Amino acid sequence: MAPYESDDAAGAAREEEPHSGRRKVARYAVPVAVVGVAAATIGLVPALADSGDPDLPRITAQQLIDKIAKSDVQQMSGTVKISTDLGLPDLGGLESGIASGAAKGSGHGSSADPRAKLTELVSGTHTLRVAADGPDRQKLSLLEQGAEYSLIHNGKDVWGYDSKSNEVSHGTAAGSGKVRRAEPPATPKDFADQALKSVDDTTSVTVDGTAQVAGRDAYRLLIKPRQSGTTVGAIGIAVDAKTGMPLKFTLTPKSGGTAVIDVSFTQVSFARPAASTFDFTPPKGAKVTEEKKHSQAREHAPMPGGDFAKGLNGADVLGKGWTSVATFETGARGGLPTGAKGSDLGGFLGSLGDKTSGKFGRGTFFSTRLVNALITDDGKVYVGAVTKDALVKAADTGK
Length: 399
What we know:
outer membrane lipoprotein receptor (LolB), chain A; 13-stranded mixed β-sheet
């Protein structure tokens, strides 16, 4: 079905524009939060074929954005397919070691700690089961071969359980309806909410027809950068025609090929889940680890779907719109971190990048299908969903 209508919608979800050219990161939650691949991240699914183009009432992009904003689904359950294809090299299990080390470094050694599971989702296809009953009850389960990992929020308790190791992590919620974002984003809504924050006068927003997702009629919202120099091709969001809840999120790179990020419900129900869904008692013999209280900085660790700016502890932004580049200091000599004594982490990381130079001096360029980064030899990092030329230009300007 042809698009209903082209609608700029530049002012629909626009954030206030600071006066300074160097701004705190705002639009990075979708493109650069995926940079969590370099820190600790999650990724998401191969596109699922639509099963038809339902005949729905006409709607403008502005009206559809408003419909998403007004959506207030309190009860739901369903199955989500998630996958990511950033084109990262095979790290030979290194990502699992990083996750484990991060958990231990924060005082946790449990495989049930949510942070110990994140990098397992950095590539490939995964299946999640999700359920919610208001702000104080949520459950996310990662289905693995012969095992399952569950994260349950029930009132003041937050439980993580790894059936493979029979380990349990227990913590408390930050307050009614406020769970610490130790868990990754799990549904298309998580990603859609962040994508809509990126809409401004550098963005084109249109309604691109209709679709059926998980057996439900939906409108398709298409978000495309107007600027050249970005690696983002387009973002597609399938919005449930009845509830306004996003049912599918897809981010494709300008270079083409498969989606970098694609999250979609394969089954969804808006009936209230049974109360027992959120019950949890540690199994007999399970090792239970009580989480320590985290500092404010750790509460806001850089996570896809989270506030990337807080995770970078005050990163500045050069430029505007989709070609914005975040910049911050690593504090590492030679640009790349050296790792523990006796290790050659810098050499290993260097082997994954390409040496480059400019007015800024010399550095190492790292690329994926979406997010690219330049680490200069004097310890500065420039990162964004932009081309190599854009990063070098930003580094030259920043210098």
